[in-house]
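Box 3.1 — From sequence to structure: ABC transport system ATP-binding protein
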Amino acid sequence: MPPAQPVVELHDVSKSYAEGDAVREVLSNVRITLHAGEFIVLLGRSGSGKSTLLNLISGIDLPSRGTVRVDGRELVTLSEHERTLLRRERIGFIFQAFNLLPTLTVEENILLPLELTGRDGPHSRNRVRELLDTVGLGNRAASFPDRLSGGEQQRVAVARALAHTPPLLLADEPTGNLDEQTGRKVLDLLEGLTRRENACALIVTHDPGLVARADRVLSLETGRLVEREARA
Ligand SMILES: Nc1ncnc2c1ncn2[C@@H]1O[C@H](COP(=O)(O)OP(=O)(O)OP(=O)(O)O)[C@@H](O)[C@H]1O
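Predicted structure (token representation):
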């Protein structure tokens, strides 16, 4: 069998911002290839460019130099609309602030990515139910997000991010707003689900517990992306 196509490929990617008359390079010649089934952690001090990197991978922003490929498609060659579709269909997001839609029930929130990608058929309700059971919220399908605890909301966000079986999951400090024990539960689910679905997960975190269970540990240091030795 030929080797599977990488999920993400960054080739010599740099990103600069104008700062008054000067130009500041936030990312310098970043090269990295991410594959299906990898559970990857991204570390870096505040301001080191972690969100910038996620924005480049998701096509929200474009690099100043270099190329970004997601699922083999080079983002700079796509129109903004095509990038939006790619993001919607091929990427799941989890944010620190959960970002659930308050006017939709738990079930409707998880159904949304399936609806947006035209995959809300007879099977989608089963998929949502099954995900809800997996994250331990099978009895909260009809609740609205503001009735749930922070940990429960983040479990819904995990289910939503994976509902449309995206090959790539991007998470920006998904446990930042949770206490340690709740954060651990959410990470268990996140890891279990991404492994089960053979997705590639790239997770920004400061959580040492997450670093210990990652397949790969990446770190942004003065604009360079460095790969550290992951657990043995
Ligand atoms: N649109 C922008 N215009 C100008 N500068 C920007 C822009 N976006 C980010 N930056 C700068 O790029 C640097 C990296 O920002 P980024 O948000 O990627 O860091 P981060 O590692 O995610 O930080 P944190 O952990 O605090 O969220 C910062 O110095 C920020 O001020």
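Summary of the box: The CA atoms of residues 102 and 154 lie 13 Å apart.
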